[in-house]
Amino acid sequence: MGGAIRRRSIGTLAQGAQARYRTDDQESHKRFTRRNISLQTQVHAAAAEAVLSAMRIALYQPDIAKNTGTILRLAACLGVEAHIVEPAGFPTSDRAFRRAGMDYLDRVSLVRHASWQAFERWRRDAKLRLVLLTTQAGHNYLDHRYAPDDVLLFGRESSGVPPEVHAASDARLIIPMQPGLRSINVAMACAMALGEALRQIGGFPRLG
Q1: Bridge pairing between strands 109-113 and 39-43
Q2: pTM strictly above 0.85
Q3: From CA 11, how far away is CA 46, in angstroms rounded?
Q4: I need a labelling partner for 131 at 20 to 30 A (CA). Which of 50, 145, 173, 195 fits?
């Protein structure tokens, strides 16, 4: 038989990318921040041709690259625009994502915001409703009535979101779980909440 096929998981590749976060990546990331670009949109050719749902998802200062990679893959597959609110705990350039093995990046409509304030200016200008998924809420995510102009926001893995983000949210929702447990993995929580939201608004890609 021919040579063995090596299979590496997205998580392994993501961890490898973090380990190889060298000075050039750090300097590139700093230059991005120093330019004070409030909104950087990356819409690749394949993503531009996709039929996108009106629903959007956003990640607040994500900590873990492999979770973000999983969520971006979900966004690509379901045709949902994804937003990253900087700063993140890892490099978020296209180069870094590709190094982590995210070969579906060309299919993602991805918007990067340099800060929470920049994200909020964009959201308010676009007149979009902010729906925060958090363990600090009391309203079941299944009981919420979603709308096409919603942005589903997910906090950072280590600490969620600060009080100012809670205060800015139009709705705060929780995914019920067994007592005594801290939280559901953010990528899984995103899939659950986004799936319900798309079901309600009829936003899944059409079959056939």
Answers
A1: antiparallel
A2: no
A3: 24
A4: 50
